[in-house]
Specification:
CATH architecture of the largest domain: 3-Layer(aba) Sandwich
Shape: globular
Structural class: alpha/beta
Oligomer: single chain
Number of strands: 11
Number of domains: 2
Bound molecules: S-adenosylmethionine
Number of helices: 15
Amino acid sequence: MATIGTNAGSVALPFQDWRRFKEAFAPELVEMAVSETPGRVERIVDPFGGSGTTALAAQFLGINPTTIEVNPYLADLIEAKISRIDLEAAALAFARVVERAGNSVAPPQNPFPDAPRTFVEPGVDNRYIFSKAVAARLVAYRDAIMAEANEGIRRLFRVVLASAAVPVSNVTISGKGRRYRSNWQSRRVSPAAVDSWFRDGVLQALYDLRRFADRSCQEYTLLRGDARQLVNDLPQHQLAVFSPPYPNSFDYTDVYNVELWALGYLSSRGANTALRNATLRSHVQIHRDMTADDLAAKTLGETVRKLESVSERLWNRHIPSMVAAYASDMAVVIRGIGRAMPRGGRAYIVVGDSRYAEVDVPVAAILAELAPGLGFEPLRVEPFRSMRVSPQQGGRPQLSESLLVLGRR
Ligand SMILES: C[S@@+](CC[C@H](N)C(=O)[O-])C[C@H]1O[C@@H](n2cnc3c(N)ncnc32)[C@H](O)[C@@H]1O
């Protein structure tokens, strides 16, 4: 069980290494959830798709998946993995894309016009994410890909190129945000690195797609957008397996910002803000409406009160209202999932606790308390793996991550 929550052992798994996704859980969790759910599981839902683990594992198990994902790059990454594509046509398209990119003329002055100015050399204060030469190569490939007629092939190549964006940049990304590589000025990435990342990525992707082309289920439904609304559009399903963002400083729009801008998933600041506002209220990086429903959960009330009582020691004064808003958002999603689930259906939810100014936010316990009001009974809460405490929380011992299992009443 200890290994189920981590993707540490799954780096070599097919599909998973198209783009390393630290927040993914292991596909075995889906298998376990299916085997424990009473009755036949015909459909599985995941309202927070991420890298697509639930959907892909479901297809391997012969079960029809429905996935919601708000981030357009991640939604494309999921769909590229779970949709069928004509591999012969993809191989021919690959040759065309490489040729077109090779013939590309000098790029426009600013290849990512609306992106933050730090994106391309000379950047701001002489710090920039991509050198001009690397940016030009990325854009040459991006444009060559977008000239392809077949939507599935375009999507696949685009996510492969997106996976090259951070490695050929001057930054690294972690849950704590974006950081310049220590030696970035002397490192000087060659534009040819874009060619090799793209070529290797396409070969890997085509290999995985070919090798696992006859998964027992080839169907899927992908809903692009905000789970808080889209749970109302879910088909009837017997099982939900998911992991929402945790209430901490991990901001998914920020974490995938390089890919989002470089590949044209975002093309205006307004779109960036809209995406941030459509993500779960799990962080305080942007100022947003933190109005919360009045939920009947003792632990939630106590936690918010404790946080308010130490507000002068919190690194952001919106943390107490964010925790209440987070619980509200989760309640909306869990209730929505339950609406399209028969009695006996189950939800397997991987959540992480947080700690601010020595106040614990026991997320699994809070959700277990909320469950009866949302149409579920809590069946069990068990420890998962541990996460490191973020630096804002003092870097002290570890926070727990839990698997919460709910049964539909
Ligand atoms: C912890 S990750 C999911 C990881 C996934 N279980 C896997 O194995 O790859 C959470 C995901 O929720 C997405 N997300 C955040 N807010 C969302 C919202 N309001 N609606 C849908 N997806 C959202 C994020 O973009 C992120 O991909």
